[in-house]
Amino acid sequence: MTTELLAGWNVSPFTHDGITHDVYRRGDGPGVILIPEIPGATPAVIALGERLVAAGFHVVLPSIIGTPGRPPSGGYLAGSALRMCVSREFAAFARRADRPIAGFLRALARDVHAQRGGPGVGVIGMCFSGGFALATAADASVLAPVVSQPAVPPAIGAGRSATGLSPTEEAAVRRRAGDGLCALGLRFTDDRSVPAERFAAFERLLGEGWRAFEIDSSPGNADGIPANAHSVLTDASATVQGHPTHRANELVVEFLRERLAG
User: Fold this and answer.
1) How does pLDDT run across 224-253, given as a tens digit for each residue?
2) Which is it for the CA torsion 223, 224, 230, 235, positive or negative?
3) What is the pTM (predicted TM-score) of this model?
4) Measured between alpha carbons, how far is 244 from 131 in angstroms, rounded to an integer?
5) Domain range holding 148?
6) CA distances from 34 to 40, 68, 187, 212 (A)
7) Number of domains composing the chain
8) Residue by residue, what is the 3-state secondary structure of 163-197?
């Protein structure tokens, strides 16, 4: 099911290892995979995709959860979260095992790279999909992972400093970081679902390849950002000049251009 928001996008199914999802594509230039946040490819996620298209990228939006174009609501959020928790595709966070959806996204990255050419592709993950952006970087086709408010696994106990990657993925990312891989991380400072310990773990993994942009959401901050702020790139002020979330969007475009220029 689509809405007029996706009328200008081409859609076709993509299959890997028994998993099939519709994939929406639009634009010219280097390939960038935009993984939706919960509950799915909402109007705000699609608007982010359109901004990336306007910035000169070929945007690939896999509909791995939810209904494309459907606005968020309490029930929709809960239903999408439940599906993610029980689905075989997304399982294994607690066991730090390889997840089928990560393999699907790496295969999609290879496919996009083969079609678009250039040195590689970018991948943007947000919220539950934040860590997936870095998991795709276990594959050599991914040169520009953007890890925005990575909220999985839950920030409880040891989970506060967990990367969400399997040991195999961590080893591959660490090896690639030694060869020059960089990743951009985004978070609000008071976001309880994305604690500072998690960003510190990414820094230990990537070393100098980790670039973090953290937006002050502490009480009394200069921009009036609430303490419960979470979605950096799809924030309501993301298109407001001078707002920190607008700057975050600019940094993503700059990072993608830097890494994917061929």
Assistant:
1) 999 999 999 999 999 999 999 999 999 999
2) negative
3) 0.95
4) 22
5) 4-260
6) 11, 13, 17, 19
7) 1
8) CCCCHHHHHHHHHHHHCCCCEEEEEECCCCCCCHH
